[in-house]
Amino acid sequence: MRGEGRVRTCIGEADDCYVSSSRAQRGDLPDALWKGIAVGLTLLAMTQNALLKAIVEDKKMGVKRRDFFKIAGVTALSALTATKAVSAFAFGPSGHGGETVSKDNAVRWAMVIDTRKCGKGAQCKNCPSLRACHEAHNVPDIPNKKHEVKWIWQDSYDHAFPTQTHALIKDELKTRPVMLLCNHCDNPPCVRVCPTKATFKREQDGLVMMDQHRCIGCRYCMSGCPYGARSFNWVEPKPHIKKINRAYPVRTLGVVEKCTFCAERLAKNQGPICVEACPEKAIVFGNLNDPKSEVRKILSVSDSVRRKPHLGTSPEVYYIM
Amino acid sequence: MLEKALVGNKKYWMFVFFLLVIIGLGFLTYLCQLSQGLGITGMSRDVSWGLYIAQFTFLVGVAASAVMVVLPYYLHDYKAFGKLTVLGEFLAIASVIMCMLFIFVDMGQPFRAFNMILHPTPGSVMFWDMVSLGGYLLLNMLIGWTCLEAERKSVPPPKWIKPFIYLSIPWAVSIHTVTAFLYCGIGGRSFWFTAIMAPRFLSSAFSAGPALLIIFALIIRRISHFKPGYEPIQKLAQIVTYAICINVFFVLLEIFTVFYSAIPEHMHHFKYLFVGLHGHTGLVPWMWASTVLCLFAIVLLVNPKTRKKEHLLVIACVAVFIGTWIDKGMGLVVTGFIPNPFDTVTEYMPTYREVLIALGVYGIGALIITVLYKIVLAIRDREIAN
Ligand code: SF4
Ligand code: SF4
Questions:
Q1: Å from B34 to nearest chain A CA?
Q2: CA nearest A216 in B: which residue?
Q3: Ligand 2, residues A215, A222, A234, A255: which to mutate, most atoms within 8 A of Cβ?
Q4: pTM of structure
Q5: pLDDT digits (tens, 9 = 90+) for A69-101
Q6: What structural domains and CATH numbers belong to chain B?
Q7: Which residue has its alpha carbon closest to ligand 1 atom 8?
Q8: What would you report as the CA-atom Rg of chain B, rounded to the nearest whole angstrom?
Q9: How far is the C-alpha of B233 from the C-alpha of A269, rounded, in Å?
Q10: Which residues of chain B have a CB within 8 Å of the CB of A189?
């Protein structure tokens, strides 16, 4: 499995020690530089346009040969810089969620959730996947709804797909539970807005990760995420964890957290724990870039949707309806 | 020059003491927030920004509005504003410092604030907001101080300061534009996702800021020998009039677009603001109060007869200030989160501790203004005495 050994998990007593990836993988600086240059170029393009206008106005009486070249040169240059600037600013894929699978990395983890199977089993009342995830990752169980922390949870169809519902949908669909979690978007707005790169997209496999040592708790990412996938530690989490899993870090006050697609398990060639724990086999996980993978097979034969595809975030959690 | 802030009459010291008490209360409450976490505020998983960020947004506008006295004076040579520019610049200094403090108290891990500099991220608008606010603070400190120093020595300000003054004009516009980008660049929050956000920010800023300056000028006239004249105040009143009219116009543009297109995602937020959504009406009375205040102010301001009477003008200015404050300091930020991404409503109400911390920050701002204005007035008093 690619991506192995690139994730470090701290084990033991450390309070807020957490999964973090090697920084070099992320192209920290080049990315920063490019965005910076983009802004510079935009300004440059503006100045050039102004310059161009000035030249034209100056020479209204008749453009001389030399000036013509001046104008042509400036025009070409501004066009060039403007295109560059625009492409550096355009973060997302084009189209309305119909973009093709990204090809630039060998692995692109994705999840397919079969909502038809979900909630049908005998054990489903107290969803084993949900419990397994929250127990494994020391997710606190906070009674006050406002301070809730959750990585994966169930909600109704209406709430999961608020723009794709109507008054007359069949009752079965209306009451069907839908598993919600971070979509590990291919074009994640949470990553775009974070001022410290504490949340970042792992180049090698597309996972959207959190570095809880770096997060300043500004919660810009929570505003940015259109899926409500992120939780903030409003209160000290530790007292609300029933049984602390020593193999996984506990978060500290004042940082943001969310599902990681079980990066710590992927590093050991295991799939996410929710997949393993689901008795109905409703969740499938795999590499979207591998045409022979199970996720690709399922997607090629079933009716699948994603949440809010019109926002261009390109979510990597697919739902079979 | 700072020593001038250390001499004052009993009233001055009583006011300073009063501010210190408010700051102290805010600080103690902040310590409590530091140890117990942001859970002591009214914010939640669904409404993850609240009073603090809203005050930040509002005050960026007040800071930017200094440009409304600087620009006419330096670009149009409007002499009557000469004595007011330094008041505008010092108001900007206090506002920017309050903005920074509001961001700071909103952070879950404030001691890591420097991560924004250690790991600069130009793709994040918050990074640019930090750059523009920091730059604006430095510019205004430099300009305000240099010009005041020159005034104390009764010489014209040095030539080298001119380029900085010219730079501060577009810079003022930039701070509020970048702050608008914080919101309107987020596609998933349809309330904020509108290109008119930056113009709206600027128009409300250019009405609230000068309105505040008028109020300050009238207070100064009462308590010191420096008497800001009738003419510059009337000019400021005109600026407030235009800006508040444009602001209301922009709001109407937004309302037309949202309700004529009738896209539910966009309408829901406005419904929450003005009539309530799914039975939740927390902000409705506030927003109507804001609307009434702004319209009332427009009536007073547009009519020259009322605008020219200073006691009515001051009422209009207070109405403008409170009206725009409710709109930005309460409505704008919170409504972006209501309804939440699941189309359900979690309402937000600040807790009293959150309010105390916010008041503490305002106290710091008020103290900075008091001290800076005291210095200005002391210098002018001496000029007048000579
Ligand atoms: S679902 Fe939200 S948190 Fe997860 S990657 Fe997408 S935007 Fe980020
Ligand atoms: S809360 Fe943390 S992860 Fe989220 S945007 Fe701020 S620094 Fe980044």
A1: 9
A2: B109
A3: A215
A4: 0.86
A5: 444 454 455 555 555 444 444 544 444 444 445
A6: 2-385 (1.20.1630.10)
A7: A190
A8: 21
A9: 72
A10: 186-188
- Non-local CB neighbours of A232 within 8 Å, separated by 6+ positions: A149, A217, A219, A222, A254, A255, A256, B38, B45, B48, B108
Q: What is the pLDDT of residues A224-253, one digit of tens each?
A: 999 999 999 999 999 999 999 999 999 999
| Protein residues with CB under 6 Å of any ligand 2 atom | A 194, 196, 198-199, 215-221, 256
What is the phi/psi pair of residue B342, to 5°? -100, 10
**Residue among B108, B121, B346 whose CB faces A194 most closely:** B121
Domains and CATH numbers, chain A: 6-87 (no CATH), 109-320 (3.30.70.20)
Mean pLDDT of chain A: 79
Measured distance CA(B255)–CA(A268) in Å, rounded: 54
Nearest CA in chain B to A237: B37
- A225 within ligand 1 shell (Cβ under 6 A): yes
Distance B37 CA to ligand 2 centre (A): 16
Residue B154 — φ and ψ, nearest 5°? 55, 45
Residue spans of chain A under pLDDT 50: 1-30, 53-72, 74-75, 84-89, 91-100
Q: What is the pLDDT of residue B271?
A: 94
Report how far residue A37's alpha carbon sits from residue A31's, in angstroms, rounded to the nearest whole number. 10
CB contact under 8 A, A254 and B187: no
Point out the residues of chain B with pLDDT beneath 50: none
Among the partner-chain residues A146, A162, A311, the one whose CB lies closest to the CB of B45 is: A146
Tens digits of residue pLDDT in B154-201: 888 899 999 999 999 999 999 999 999 999 999 999 999 999 999 999
Nearest to B236 by CA among B86, B75, B89, B69: B69
Question: Taking CA atoms, what residue in A is nearest to B189?
Answer: A226
